[in-house]
Amino acid sequence: MVKNIQIHTSHQGLFEFTHQVAEVIRETELLEGLCTLFVQHTSASLIVQENADPSAKRDLERWLNRLVSESDSLYTHTLEGSDDMPAHIKSALTATSLAIPIMNRKLTLGTWQGVYLWEHRRHGGHRSIVIHIGH
User: Fold this and answer.
1) Predicted TM-score (pTM) of this structure
2) What is the third-level CATH fold of 2-70+79-134?
3) Is 85 helix (H, G, I), strand (E, B) or coil?
4) Would you tell me how many other CB atoms lie within 10 Å of the CB of residue 38?
5) Which of 20, 29, 31, 97 is a Cys-bridge partner for 38, taking CB atoms 3.0 to 4.6 Å apart?
6) Residues of the chain with pLDDT under 50
């Protein structure tokens, strides 16, 4: 099964969508298999991360923004704004796809893990995620 979902982002940061993936898995009635996720954008990424303490998300966001500055004079790809090239770099440093096993009709995430879209642009937008569920 392949399904495309939309995540609306309004700013930089981590947006959890674990529950949407779980719903797609429930629709398939697949007992076990593999869930593959792919973000169809070059300025956003996917990550499995802690979903209990919001300070973990804030620390990750601040650390990546410090690592990849918007004010680097080496950037030549600047027509779409000062946050565009840094967003591409952040996407390249993280992941655009994830593979998570399914057991007993559920993602095999740990107790404090969630699936996140990491928006790297300041103003966000509509992001498309392809979900593939298979054996």
Assistant:
1) 0.95
2) Jelly Rolls (2.60.120)
3) helix
4) 16
5) 97
6) none
